[in-house]
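Lecture notes, continued. The same structure-token format from the folding unit now serves as the input rather than the output. Read the line below as a description of shape only.
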């Protein structure tokens, strides 16, 4: 079974439990609340949600993007108290004393730690509430879902949103949302391709006439790049570095294609032999080498999607090119690398980290598009 399947199934199971409970607001000792429920209650305006592995974004109709924070929560290991959320919690990753843990509740692409996700959403809601006040009435809601979600999983997310107070809930597959957000003509008969490289996954989709014609997803994305840098530091320099340090190096010195001026950067960590702090100099060439297995996997996924695309659409793609979205698309030279390996023109969408939420929000504005691009949920409830 593919990865999305497993995690979406876990999330769906939890959602079903919550929905089946006669007292959905009080679930045992932990007081687990359906996160969507507490969330939607705060809004009267239509909302679009991108619950990403790395970042959570929420757009409220008429107000624009009101939440854009890392999906990270810092928790006291003993008391279970939440100490920090979002930007502040992300700063703590890898720096926390033994008594504090920094959690990424969506690490695996779909809600994998439900209770913590709920705490995170509640915090974000409060901050929106403080800024804009509370509304009345029922919102329409659009949620971006991974393209691998099954019927059962989609129905669970849809039902949860409705049970939580949405007037109507629409699901849009993430690469479709990203394509809309990147401004691709998704309703045209001519094909477009979007490659969304997030924290957890790279999702590739060929889109025509408002539907996904071909899609593939791979676990090669931002997190895998960070891990590749950590492995490299350990294996080549005997240096132990944290996730945040690896991500920083990726952003400042990472690339996928030779740079005009290759430079060096300092990498600080702990010497595995002595246990003492150590700093080594690494060149952008070395960092590119370290990242190459992940980059190659992204290229393979794009090529594999192209290989199964009907020839007429391939001709369209040659003309219009491939749009890249998601934070991972900001890796320097990745567009050139993908262009070289596929022989298609490739470009990075505007403000790529916000394409999915922007696409969901744009779809809310156009009922016809929304009806067409939504990932339809079967009308009959599947057997339990
Ligand atoms: N300039 C940059 N260069 C390289 N990578 C970057 C850059 N800026 C952000 N990233 C990476 O982008 C990733 C986050 O992207 P994004 O917010 O699109 O992911 P997400 O939507 O939360 O994840 P997913 O779609 O997998 O659930 C992180 O791994 C981050 O390190
Ligand atoms: Mg994403």
């Amino acid at each position: 079974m593919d990865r999305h399947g497993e995690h979406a199934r876990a999330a769906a199971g939890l959602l079903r439990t919550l929905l089946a409970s006669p007292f959905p607001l009080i679930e045992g000792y932990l007081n687990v609340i359906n996160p969507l429920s507490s969330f939607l209650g705060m809004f009267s305006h239509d909302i679009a949600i991108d619950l990403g592995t790395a970042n959570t974004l929420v757009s409220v109709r008429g107000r624009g993007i009101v939440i854009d924070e890392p999906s990270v929560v810092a928790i006291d290991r003993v008391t279970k108290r939440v100490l920090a959320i979002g930007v502040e919690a992300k700063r703590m990753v890898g720096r926390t004393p033994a008594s504090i843990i920094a959690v990424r509740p969506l690490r695996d692409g779909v809600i994998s730690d439900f209770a913590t996700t709920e705490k995170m959403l509640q915090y974000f809601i409060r901050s929106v509430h403080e800024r804009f006040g509370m509304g009345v009435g029922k919102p329409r809601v659009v949620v971006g879902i991974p393209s691998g979600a099954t019927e059962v999983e989609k129905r669970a997310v849809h039902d949860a949103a409705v049970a939580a107070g949405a007037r109507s809930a629409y699901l849009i597959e993430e690469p479709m949302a990203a394509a809309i957000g990147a401004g691709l003509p998704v309703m045209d008969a001519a094909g477009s391709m979007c490659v969304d490289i997030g924290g957890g996954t790279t999702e590739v989709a060929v889109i025509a006439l408002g539907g996904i014609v071909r899609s593939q997803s791979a676990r090669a994305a931002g997190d895998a790049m960070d891990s590749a840098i950590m492995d490299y530091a350990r294996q080549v320099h005997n240096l132990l570095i944290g996730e945040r340090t690896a991500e920083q190096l990726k952003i400042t010195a990472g690339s996928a294609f030779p740079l005009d001026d290759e430079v060096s950067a300092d990498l600080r960590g702990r010497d595995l032999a002595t246990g003492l702090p150590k700093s080594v100099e690494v060149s952008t060439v070395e960092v590119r080498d370290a990242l190459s297995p992940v980059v190659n996997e992204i290229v393979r996924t794009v090529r594999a999607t192209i290989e199964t695309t009907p020839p007429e659409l391939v001709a369209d793609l040659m003309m219009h090119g491939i749009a890249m979205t998601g934070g991972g698309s900001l890796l320097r030279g990745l567009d050139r690398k993908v262009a070289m390996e596929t022989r298609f023109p490739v470009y990075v969408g505007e403000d790529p980290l916000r394409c999915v939420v922007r696409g969901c929000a744009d779809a809310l504005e156009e009922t016809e598009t929304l009806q067409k691009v939504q990932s339809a949920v079967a009308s009959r409830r599947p057997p339990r």
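Point for the exam: The CA atoms of residues 32 and 160 lie 14 Å apart.
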